[in-house]
Amino acid sequence: SSLPRQFKSRGSSPHAREMSAASNACPVSIADIAGALDDCNEATLKRLLSAVIRKNPDCRNKVAQEHGLTTELTAVSDADRRQAAEEQYKEVKTSANDGDDVNEDIDFYERAKFVPMRLTYDERKYLRLIDSTMHVSHYTDHMDNAANVRANPARKLALQMKQLCAILTGMQIAHSYEQGQQLMQSREFAAKSIFFQSVLEIGRRYKILNPERMRDSYGKLMYFLQDSRKTEVRELMEFDSVVRVRTVYDVLSRSARGLEMLEDPSLRTATMEIMPEGKSRMQVQKEIKAKEAAIKTLSQKYCSVARRRKSSYGFGSYSLSYLRSSYADSESDDDKTGGEELTEDLVEQCIYSLGDHSTYLRFNREPCDRLLGFLRELFDPNDPGPGDYSLAIEEGVGGARLSHPHQRQYTFVLQSMSLWREVLDNMFQLWHLAEEDLLDEEHAYALTDTGQGLQRVQKSPRSVVAMQKILAKVQRKVGGWIGSTQVHLGDHNVPNALMFIDKYIQVPRFLGPLVLTLDKIPQLSQSSDAMKGYIDSFGGVKVLQKRILSDFFRHAFDGSGADNFFDAGSCIDGRLTSAWNWCSSIERKDYFPIFLLTGFTGFDGKEGF
């Protein structure tokens, strides 16, 4: 009697008629089944219904469309679960090939296609505008709720238009009160399309360059743009709010000379990151001067319009126009030369943007490189050593859900972190592809209850293909693969490309604090006699470092984090799930006070959600 309402009226339901016809071939009578169902509680009925519908994919999809039974129908089929369990210990061996790392030459021509332009002074005004607009917006609260799952399409479109127009109008009023008043009266949003496209693009560009920023605003921004790309919405708005993210390649392609700069050998010097470690002050100053000279030479050589230098009232060789952008309300001198000209300032901005990318890569890849170095230096794949430092794990022991001997676990960790490093190395490319998938009108999302609330589940073919290529590259590099190669994307684990990107930008957030703690342990030991005595109680600096690392290498890669192998395990995304599970239990470790003493505050970055 606690069945969902839509299944009670058996006479009128098409599914009831199908069930009635099928019951003739069933050895159990309908009366017996009905009696048994009456004795079941609601939870049992839900599990029963889920099991029945899971057997037939066509029936599952039909019921999902007609009755909106999203939570139960997102359950993974038994066949998928069996396949996932079988692949946990799958092993593929190939000949290791380190050729990908031998060539250190940077292909600036390809890199420039994905490197976003650094924001200018004027653009930061618009950044504050879009960030503040999305921060106070409740767009996703209105659109992604249970009421809209079964809402009439016309009613849902009306609500979408109301929310979209409200955000765009508010943005225009915040920028210019007079123009906002005019827009409210005319409702001609297409007349302001360039303004809206520019502001929305700036928000997306800034987020790619600064993943730790706009952590709530960016998600709302992308879901806002996702809805604005629907055909019926664009027809009503009369413009497309989405434009390409402005990249270095887009700017330099304004002239043939600009693209030639990408092949100039001096560009490597102009974009290099100068690190002070192991260098004298004189050597650092020498590298800085060489870099500044290369930037100046390249910007003068490849620009199509030279910078207008003032004989006085300037700042060195720079005019005040250096701080301006090319937007319509800018007062830049460069704008008067024409928006399509490649000015000296723009060339400099392109060079600095490529340099920013080098810094971005170092910051994100360094924790992976450091931990890979610790793994190779402190652990021998063929000799586990004392039991406390063996990387062997056993299912059911210490929360592990996989069983690996020391050598296999060593390789499993090495492969996992090599994959993370490669993903971070290609993050800008993956981010562009993820946005293309999110804003692809051909692959519409479905608002679905995945068991973690309502999510926009959407296929992401570009991101999946890119990840498969990265995985194949890592397999060639490390000489094979241990475990599953399943990439979850577009299912209840990783609903869409936005969640996919968010998973991997977390990697530096939890590896960085770990590396920082390991680096500070020697300094902590030398800070006082009492502190030295405390660290010696763990066996000393080296022993403590190895103890922390062995625990991380075991239990951050043990398949934990879920109760089945489809949601966690040795699959590509399951490795991250296990790592976050280890992070969530850090306060229960006996060495956790060491983390606190080295300044650890958490794994979630500075801002939090």
Summarize the structure.
The protein is mainly alpha-helical. The protein contains 30 helices and four strands.
Spell out the key features of this protein:
disordered N terminus; 30 helices; mainly alpha; 609 residues; two-stranded antiparallel ribbon
Walk me through the structure:
The protein has 609 residues and is mainly α. It is built from 30 helices and four strands. It has helices spanning 14-22, 30-38, 42-54, 57-67, 70-73, 78-86, 99-102, 108-111, 121-136, 139-143, 146-149, 153-175, 177-186, 193-209, 217-228, 231-237, 248-252, 256-261, 266-271, 281-302, 344-378, 406-425, 427-438, 461-478, 497-504, 507-527, 529-536, 541-555, 572-584, 592-597, and strands at 91-93, 446-449, 454-457, 480-482. Strands 1-4 form a two-stranded antiparallel sheet. The chain has a two-stranded antiparallel sheet with strand order 2-3. A hairpin with a 4-residue loop joins β2 (446-449) and β3 (454-457). α21 packs antiparallel against α22 (406-425) and α23 runs antiparallel to α25 (497-504). The two termini are 42 Å apart. Residues 1-26, 69-74, 99-103 and 310-338 have low confidence and may be disordered.
| Gap between N and C termini | 42 Å
Measured by DSSP, the beta-strand proportion falls in under 5%
**Based on the structure, what is the oligomeric state of the protein chains?**
single chain
Strand order of the largest sheet: 1-4
Low-confidence stretches: 1-26, 69-74, 99-103, 310-338
Report helical residue fraction.
55-70%
Query: Helix count, per DSSP?
Result: 30
Task: Summarize the main sheet.
Answer: 2 strands, antiparallel
Q: What is the gyration radius calculated from CA atoms? A: 29 Å
Q: What class, by secondary structure content?
A: mainly alpha
pLDDT averaged over residues: 79
Principal-axis shape: globular
Number of E strands? 4
